[in-house]
Amino acid sequence: MSVTKTLTVRQATMRDVDQMLEIINQYAQQGLMLPRTKLSVCEHLQSFVVAHDGESVIGVAGLHILWEDLAEIRSLAIAEKAKGMGVGKQLVLHLVEQCRLLGINRVLALTYQKAFFEKCGFRVVAKETLPQKVWKDCINCSKLPMCDEIAMIVETATA
Ligand SMILES: CC(C)(COP(=O)(O)OP(=O)(O)OC[C@H]1O[C@@H](n2cnc3c(N)ncnc32)[C@H](O)[C@@H]1OP(=O)(O)O)[C@@H](O)C(=O)NCCC(=O)NCCS
Q1: Which of 44, 66, 95, 157 has the highest local Cβ count within 10 Å?
Q2: Along the 159 residues of the chain, how does pLDDT read in single tens digits?
Q3: Which helix (H) or strand (E) holds 107?
Q4: Span from the CA of 34 to the centroid of ligand 1 (angstroms)
Q5: Is the pTM of this model over 0.90?
Q6: Where are the domains of the chain?
Q7: Under CATH, to which class is 2-155 assigned?
Q8: Ligand 1 in contact with 83 (CB < 6 A)?
Q9: Is ligand 1 within 6 A of the CB of residue 152?
């Protein structure tokens, strides 16, 4: 597990963008997550963190604030070579801590990765309980009519 020895989780920079896109869009092509354009990553760069192993970006995650008490983890993806080494969990816990420091009480994930997010302290919630604002960006998603993603939440105070 050499990757964890030099692992850094930090704010994303413009120099990371191409590697971030490569990781995200590889999974988007498999239908596991939404694709991102270079423009959208650049525009939202401040909301992204990356995991870096000293040589390259091996993980990426974004945080989107939805409301005063709710933020969503988006575009979470770990490079194939680094999966299963705790990198995803570190990125998620980093963003949850960021939310706590920002005074945001709850963090949301819309995901197919139920077991992974449970390991990060999240629990499943009924989609109907979420504010309508959550679905604003779903308008461009081909899965909108029959979205089968699971809604999961963690309270930042208890994470
Ligand atoms: C899902 C994903 C982010 C997990 O990242 P990861 O770095 O491989 O996961 P970690 O090594 O941090 O795993 C943390 C824990 O979750 C568990 N876990 C991870 N993926 C799992 C899975 N698919 N099923 C069950 N458990 C899983 C691990 O065993 C580990 O458990 P432990 O704490 O008891 O050791 C990564 O596999 C990925 O990028 N998948 C493709 C893109 C994707 O689906 N993104 C999510 C969009 S919401």
Answers
A1: 95
A2: 445 568 999 999 999 999 999 999 999 999 899 999 999 999 999 999 999 999 999 999 999 999 999 999 999 999 999 999 999 999 999 999 999 999 999 999 999 999 999 999 999 999 989 988 888 777 777 776 778 899 999 999 865
A3: strand 106-111
A4: 17
A5: yes
A6: 2-155
A7: alpha beta
A8: yes
A9: no
